[in-house]
Write a structure and sequence with these properties.
103 residues, TolA/TonB C-terminal domain, alpha+beta
Length: 103
């Protein structure tokens, strides 16, 4: 799994879970798919105090339950250094299924 993002230089993530793995059913759906990797892109908006104001799914991974888990985990665990002003940044999660069944 790879996480890319935070191009907004004024926003610096302080803590929160960054390696957000799919649950077993979502992982199964990813393994059954034809792609080598699946990406989800989210916009994260931060308050003046560094809290999460909003999380918006910009591009789906293709598995709704995983997209939902990304949004929920960001909302509940991420915290940013208090910025000079509120702002938004985008984050891309790249999930690569392991042990793809032959076929």
């Amino acid at each position: 799994m790879e996480v890319q993002g935070e191009p907004n230089a004024s926003l610096s993530r302080k803590h929160g879970e960054i390696l957000i793995h799919p649950d077993s059913y979502a992982a199964y759906l990813f393994q059954q798919g034809a792609q080598d990797s699946y990406q989800a892109k989210l916009q994260v908006c931060v308050t003046i105090h560094g809290g999460i104001k909003d999380v918006v799914l910009l591009e789906s991974s293709g598995v709704e339950s995983y997209d939902r888990k990304l949004e929920e985990t960001i909302r509940s665990t991420w915290q940013y250094q208090p910025p000079d002003q509120p702002g938004c940044t985008s984050v891309t999660f790249d999930y690569r299924p392991a042990d793809r069944p032959p076929g």
